[in-house]
């Protein structure tokens, strides 16, 4: 029966569940899979409106039936963009703002897809665009992540204040769009919404930082030109976009910050006074180390505890990073406690680097 429902084979399904067949009355209680989906869930998920109607009107299945995640058939139809199924379920009295696990409404799930007609149908039946899920995301926030400007324009038209929202960790839709590289969405948000320049989430991260650390230089440029973003703003720990880009190995973004914006490649971060070179070395980003050195990074720079990037590479057990730093002329030297970088080496390949360079361990 499950396969018949999934394939939309209504004629065969009717034969299997004809009045003289004992299966008819019991199928309502049948559950499938780990989450306990019903046949109604599957009909909605696969977009078979005629099967849906048969299950509801002939077999008497409840449109509000839910699985172990509290997901209802309307959630399924909305998330898959099946407009006819959504309209049918709403006409049969399905609750438009029903909540599944993590407090997701059907409208939120519809906003993960580029199906404006489904979104309109839900809103026209009273769906509330301002409701938030457990992470504090409303529909506008979800649409900003997915990168659908036409969905966001519609939401702004029907709910002008929907843009003014923050997640539980104080991230705005602008943060999210910048992070995910949704250029058209960022452009729309800057045009129609009133986000404050360099608004910070709970970690002190700005939308500009999100764009830079994820390699979206075009969005970073847009935020500079249209939103007066600050390229040297610091997060809650004191790291600038430069340092965050070094952690994520975004070499193009580093080039942009240093060569075009004039950011000091040797700028210090956090109370530990770390340079971008320290961060790249700790993560083992060899190409980023090369990029930083080509831009004038001081290979001999030490942090507040007199540790060099070689200490960072060895602490992170990054053999290739240690090798390139040694080849660049950085020599092992004791930090403020007298510890050499090589003393932090634990992995055989890192230890081997020092043996190759005739440094005794």
Automatic annotation (TrEMBL):
Coiled coil: none annotated. Its main location: cytoplasm. It is found in: Cytoplasm; Nucleus. ANK repeats lie at residues 35-68, 69-101, 102-134, 169-192, 272-304. The gene is Ankrd16. PANTHER family: PROTEIN VAPYRIN (PTHR24166:SF48), ROLLING PEBBLES, ISOFORM B (PTHR24166). The lineage of its organism: Eukaryota, Metazoa, Chordata, Craniata, Vertebrata. InterPro entries: Ankyrin_rpt (IPR002110), Ankyrin_rpt-contain_sf (IPR036770), Dendritic_Spine_Reg/Scaffold (IPR050889). This is Ankyrin repeat domain-containing protein 16.
